[in-house]
From TrEMBL:
Belongs to the peptidase M14 family. Coiled coil: none annotated. Residues 21-353 form the Peptidase M14 domain. The keyword Hydrolase applies. It comes from the Bacteria. PROSITE patterns: PEPTIDASE_M14. Pfam families: Peptidase_M14 (PF00246). This is DUF2817 domain-containing protein. InterPro entries: Peptidase_M14. It comes from Jejuia spongiicola. The keyword Nucleotide-binding does not apply. Its cofactor is Zn(2+). Keywords: Hydrolase, Metalloprotease, Protease, Zinc.
């Protein structure tokens, strides 16, 4: 497949009912009812608060792929991409029957429905499910483990979202999509099944370089057996972490969603048409490692009083995601006041030596939260979308 064909399929089959960041069971259940007429949709368990956890099975091939999204309830971009992919695969005019003939997909669109409702990383008992792979203390953790044991996948897709702080290497390029072939031992041995995961990641990266050049990263592979990906990799199943990151001015993550779709569809195409043995794994090491080099906003060369008197400072601002009235709002918060020459910003303002105040005319302080600051007697918006 070429990238233009995949982009065309995305535009045609993008699920129009799923938008922005707040995605819960209420959003996907109408879609599951439609799907239930043509394939297998099941309730595979319940969350701490009794909300259903669903799975979707599609395809009849011998290559079995397990995917799960929203293990962290506030990471919904990959959930949107899942339904875009399903729309594509189930459309007769997509000419992708070969994928469903070669593969069987088991998809859990929202593993943490309580976290999705509350828009939190953790579940209703304040547990990070991605640190519960060994203890299996939570019902959601038991669900994913039981599906893994019963389905016996040949590949696992661990679908997540990442913060706006990450860059692809130490560059002024955001990590719009990131991957990882998790370690399976403390020595981070490049095992045969890790090579298989690395080969698939390398193929996806090659495709993504056509649309987001130098905006793909990989995570540090430090081993933690409490993480689900590390556990499944340790069970000798090639496991791939997908991370949906930031694209310019895409705080709704609806553009990044397209790049996750491109990655997923290209990977399914590759797995369907090839015997993936890990022999092409070395391309994985061409992908730069993620660094934490970004703020959402940096105000450069600001004049401040108090302890900052005498030298121009930079002001680093991060947006904090807040759930209000079933919608995600982005609240700017001052995180650092210092020289930030080693950092980049998704939005840069230059104070040019003028004083920067809060909207009440007070000296700016760490922790200040507001959509605006005052600069050269002008009210400046910190967040615009």
């Amino acid at each position: 497949m070429n990238v233009e064909d995949i982009k065309s399929l995305f535009l045609k089959h993008k699920e129009s009912s799923l938008n922005h960041r707040y995605i819960t069971n209420n959003n996907i259940e109408p879609l599951l009812k439609k799907l239930d007429k043509s394939l297998s949709v099941n309730t595979i368990g319940k969350s701490v608060l009794g909300n259903p956890i669903y799975s979707i099975n599609v395809g009849s091939g011998n290559k079995k792929i397990l995917m799960w999204s929203q293990m962290h309830g506030n990471e919904s971009t990959t959930t949107k991409a899942i339904f875009d992919i399903l729309n594509t695969l189930l459309s007769k005019d997509s000419n992708l029957d070969f994928i469903l003939q070669a593969c069987t997909l088991c998809i859990i669109p929202i593993l943490n429905p309580d976290g999705a409702i509350a828009y939190t990383r953790v579940n209703a008992k304040n547990v990070d499910l991605n640190r519960d792979a060994q203890h299996l203390s939570q019902p959601e953790s038991k669900v994913i483990k039981s599906v893994f044991d019963e389905f016996k996948p040949h590949f696992c897709y661990n679908l997540h979202g990442q913060r706006t702080i990450f860059s692809a290497g130490k560059t002024n390029k955001p990590a719009t999509v990131s991957f990882l072939a998790p370690a399976q031992d403390k020595d981070c041995t490049i095992t045969s099944n890790r090579k298989i995961a690395m080969e698939v990641i390398g193929i996806m990266n090659t495709m993504l370089q056509n649309v987001i050049p130098n905006q793909v990263g990989v995570y540090d592979d430090a081993f933690n057996l409490n993480c689900v990906g590390d556990t499944f990799q340790s069970a000798n199943v090639p496991t791939i972490l997908f991370e949906a990151g930031h694209f310019y001015n895409d705080y709704a993550r609806d553009k990044t969603r397209e790049y996750i779709y491109i990655s997923m569809l290209e990977s399914l195409n590759y797995i369907s048409n090839n015997i993936v043995d890990g022999s092409l794994y070395k391309a994985y090491f061409d992908i730069p490692e993620n660094e934490k080099c970004f703020f959402d906003v940096v105000i450069r060369n600001a004049k401040l009083g108090g302890k900052y008197e005498g030298e121009l400072q930079d002001i680093g601002v991060m947006y904090h995601e807040t759930l209000k009235n079933n919608k995600i709002e982005f609240v700017p918060k001052v995180e650092k006041i210092e020289k930030l020459d080693a950092f980049f910003a998704h939005k840069t303002l230059n104070a040019n030596g003028f004083n920067v105040y809060d909207v009440k005319g007070n000296e700016l302080q760490l922790g200040y939260e507001n959509d605006f600051v005052m600069m050269n007697n002008e009210k400046i918006a910190l967040f615009e979308q």
